[in-house]
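Structure tokens please, single chain.
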Amino acid sequence: MLPADLLRITGLAKRFRGGEGISDVSFSVPAGAVTGFIGVNGAGKSTTLRCALGLLKPDAGEISLFGAPFNLRARLRVGFLPEERGLFPHERARDAIAFHGRLKGMERKAALNSADRLLERVGLGARKYDRIASLSKGNAQRVQVLAAMVHDPDLLLLDEPLSGLDMIAQSELLSLLAAFRARGGGILFSTHSLAAAETICDRVVMLSAGRTIFEGAVPDASALAPHGAIVVTADAAGLGAAAAMLGGHIVPVAGSMGEAARWRVVLPRHITHPALIRALSERSVPVFAFEPIKPGLEGAFWHLAQRRPPESRAA
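Here you go.
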């Protein structure tokens, strides 16, 4: 029987020359759930995954796999899709998948049978003898994902698994992952797409500057999104005064339109967007763009990230 938490990371730190790395990462991946792993480039996701697999030795912290301290035997029960794809172009799809099964200890016949079954499952059964170089980017991506699943692992660590897939291929892959979760497997789903995370994931872990800034259910994360709007204006002082009058404040956002800058206006929950528009009009603040902040993971992530200023750049 699988433990409640298939992977548990506590206080993980790994520093590199130049101050890069992670400094305080903690989260768990429970059985029977998809956990989204969210962070901008450089937040520390790849470093964390490499430490979890024993590819990097952390400077501090604890890693538990399947309820026990990390060991190489437990790693055989993990399927990993790395950020750097690694299929040989001259290999045939079936053989490439089976090869990864052999690396995980499968007998040759069992590995080939598993490869055949998975290829049929995602609609690539007729192309199992095609070489990787002849496949489209999306089909090669599907083969790469199947290589992580061929040995029937208990835990999947997937780094951007939907990259390069069209809508049909995404649907087929997500159906496969849903079946994996239904039998009790756990998935850590690293993605840059917050919209995908909201749709696919049960839980999310957010990283910023090498630290965990949130862990919990998707609805709980979305509820933390600030109320307000993104405003583009050349009058920052007027915008700030209008926000302050309503009990809010402004935060700079990357991007500009000539002399105008983008600002996040954070307001109390009871203040409406029309009230902000009226306040800006009363002060003759020129507004070049006005976009209400939608509740969801994106707003929550940027709100949480800006509350904890980066101390160093993570890898």
